[in-house]
Each structure stands twice: as structure tokens, then as C-alpha cells.
Amino acid sequence: MRTAAFLYPWDVVGDPDAAGRLAGLGIQQVTLASAYHSTRALTPRHPRHRIVTARHAAVLYPPDPARWAGRELRPYTQDWVSDPDPFGAAARALADAGLEVHTWVVLAHNSRLGAEHPATVVRNAYGDPYPWAPCIARPEVRDYLVDLAAEAAVRPGARGAELESCGWYGLAHLHAHDKIAGVPLSGAAQYLMSVCFCTVCAEGYAELGVPARRLRTAVVRALEPLWASGEAGPAMEVPPGPELVEGPWEREGEWAAVEALLGTELAGVLRTWRDRAARTLQRAAVRAVRDAAVDGFRVLLHADPAAHRCGANAGVDPADVLAHADGVVLPCTGGAAARAQVLAPFTGRTAEPACAAETATVAETVSAAGAASAAETATAARTVSAAEATVLAANFTVVSGMGGSPGTLAADATHAASLGAGELRLYHAGLASESDLAAVRDALRKIGDNSGKQPTY
Question: For the segment 376-409, what is each residue's pLDDT rounded down to a tens digit?
């Protein structure tokens, strides 16, 4: 399977051995960050540093002054890498080592932008702003994100792009010194806490026939039992397991719980407005990248098959996204059931799990959820032929300290392939320890031995 590893430019810039070390893993591609959010990152092999602190969201190349002149919303530049064009420097080194470079562009996730332009962000039903989450329904935000996508994606030397957070962002956010876990939130509660009530969204709800005040009251009423005594009722129950936000439990059940809490009319208004905003951004961003790129430039979206979900893997409609993007990158870390839930809606395919012990779990999940609902099953069937001509990349965390399992990568990747995945993504080659990289190297060797020559496109 064609395999790419995620990487930051600072993993390469200043380390003359980095590119060759990555090529030795057995990967064919590096997905290199060109626009990224704030982070504190470990660089365990760099000869000059061990920690890089990216203080705010920034582009990792010199932005075009003409494109952004006179505009209120514009990308921020960085100063934590000494090279003025860290993406360009890293891309050249990686290409010299024989690796293909694609850009990694984070869009609707920018805390500094939200702090400096508070009118542009998601505001929940209580009026609380989410500075990290620009409201994608706002025209000025959408225009900014579309232009950012085009500029950050089509960098010199890049042959494709992967757009992360190309949709709604919400409550979930790895925030500094986070203190919001005191009341566990189900998928439905996460959604309700992520619904936006800014002025633009309020007008949108009214245009669909429901006053924003009525919607806000319904959302607050549905959430009140959580804050009062924890007696949330079955619609708000948190599924078992540690992954409260990105867990593999039934996506269908999340949306059914939202409908039970709000009623189908109000839930439908939210779904219509938010899905429309997400599709508009996704189509416009992909089109802008295509218009700026040469023929053959691939454009993928980091995605989740449940359209109501928020975050880095933005919720999409499988049929719609495959009609305009070249494919998707899907979160596949976790068990076989988790992989089945994210891949089946794009392919309509199911397969035996990688581990016999998980057979019953996968069978129950696919039988109960299928492509998540009767309606989504039909959608999945329609996407089978389209998916066969597009990229379905299974994204695996390979950093043990971040919940990854590099030791089972070969088996997990084989299972993902049986469900229709044609490529692999590895998160994250720069953050992984030596032992994790050794496990990745061994896994890719096994996969290559089993599948023959790596395909190209």
C-alpha cells in the first residue's frame, strides 16, 4: 500500500539526516505541514533542539503579500524556525531523498485568529465564544479559509494536498491546561455544545423557519440535566471506553440522540444549516486548490463519515465529498470496529476483523450501524463505484505515547485494506520514538512483502 507519514518542517530543517532517515522507513510520501495550529512538539532526534513551541497558528512559508493586502483576516507568519521558508527548505530536502511531498493544511482551527477577531468564532447556546473555532458559515471566514487553502496547499514542490479541519470545529479541543472533563459528554452532548449561535447562524436558522431563540432554548434545556445532577437520561449516556470525543461508538446513535433531545424538526434545521455550510466550504476549498494547481495535483480531505461530527476530521457526506475531492483521509486508530465504522460508509464493504477476538464486535457494529443508518446505507451503496476511483487513506497513530499501536500496524493496515482502504497515513514520524519507528519500518516491510510492488498513481 502506498504510505505517507505526517511531518512538521522543523523535524527536517537543521537536521541533515532527517530526510534519509524517513526514506528508510519504507514510505513513499511525506505529508508536510504548510499551515498549522499552535502546538508544543517533541523532536526526539533533532541535533539542535528537543522541543519546538509553535505559539500560534501560522503558515510555514512566506505568504503572498498581494493576496492578503488590506484584508482583516489573514494568515500569521511564524518565527520559531529560523529559516524564512521552513516548508520550502524541508520539502527540498525530502524530495532530494526520493520522497514525494504533499502539503498538510489546517483550516478551521486557529485560536489566535479567534482571539483577535471574536465576532468570527463559534458561539455556543450559552453565548460562550470558542476562539479556536472559526464559524464556517460566516462569509468572511469562508473567504479567508478558501484563499488560505489555495495558497497553503499549492506550494513549490508539492504534488498534492490534504485539508484538515475543512468543516465545523466545536467544543473538543486539546487546549492548554484543559479543565472541561468534570462532566463526561456523550457524542450528542458534544454536538449540542458545538452548535453555533453567532449572528450569521441565527439568521440562517430563521431563514429555515425556526427562530434562533427557540433553538437556543431547546439546546440549553436538553443540556441542563448534565449540569444539574448528572441524571442525563439514556440519550445523553456516555458510551463505555476512554475515548469520549473520538470514540468508535455508533455514529447513528449520536444523531438519533440529538433528534430525541431536540425533536426531529429542530434537529433537522440544525442539520440542514450546518451541513450546507460545511459542503459549501469543502467544495469551494477543493475548487480553489484545483484552480491554483497543475493537472494531477491530488486534493484529499481529513474526514469523518458522520456529517454531524466536528473537529480535525470534519464531518462529511460520503457521496458528496467523493464527488469533488480526490479522496479522504480517515481516522483508523483503534479496534476493528472503529475502522469498519469509518470505512464502510465510503465503500459499502465489510470484512473479517484483524483479530479473531474482535469478530463479534465488528459483526454487531456493522449489522447494527451498517453505513450508520438506512439512509446512509443507500448513500454508501451509491459511493462504491466512486470510491473505487478515489483515494481512501487509513490514518493510524504510530506514536505509542499518544495512543498509537505501531506494533500491530501490519495487521491493522491489512484489515483496513480489506475494508477498502488503498493507502496508509502514519501520524506522526517526527514525534515517534526510535522503537516506534523501528516497528513502523518492520510493519511496512511485511506489508510490502505481502502485497508485492507498491502501486503508484
Answer: 433 333 333 444 468 999 999 999 999 999 999 9
CA dist 52 → 32, 33, 48, 59, 80 (Å): 16, 14, 11, 15, 7
| CA pair distance 366, 212, nearest whole angstrom | 37
CA–CA separation, 8 and 33 (whole Å): 5
Task: Say yes or no to pLDDT of 119 above 70.
Answer: yes
pLDDT digits (tens, 9 = 90+) for 13-61: 999 999 999 999 999 999 999 999 999 999 999 999 999 999 999 999 9
Q: Is 287 exposed, middle or buried (0-12, 13-18, 19+ CB in 10 A)?
A: middle
Take residue 360 and report the three cell numbers written for it.
Answer: 463479534
Task: Please tell me the distance from the alpha carbon of residue 29 to that of residue 160, in angstroms, as a whole number.
Answer: 10
The residue among 446 and 375 whose pLDDT is bigger is: 446
Q: Position of cell 531523498?
A: 97
437 contacts 445 by C-beta, under 8 angstroms: no
321-369 confidence digits (pLDDT tens): 999 999 999 999 999 999 999 999 999 875 444 443 333 333 333 333 3
Phi, psi of 318 (to 5 degrees): -55, -45
3-state secondary structure at position 130: strand
Q: Rounded distance, CA 337 to CA 366, Å?
A: 8
Q: Is the dihedral of CA 79, 81, 87, 92 positive or negative?
A: positive
- Nearest alpha carbon to residue 312 among 326, 331, 288, 338: 331
Work out the burial of residue 41: count CB atoms within 10 Å of its CB; fewer than 13 is exposed, 13-18 middle, 19 or more buried.
middle
**DSSP characters for 71-112?**
-SS-PPP--SSSSS-HHHHHHHHHHHTT-EEEEEEE-S--HH
> What is the residue type of 333?
T
Q: How far apart are CA 400 and CA 435, in angstroms?
A: 9
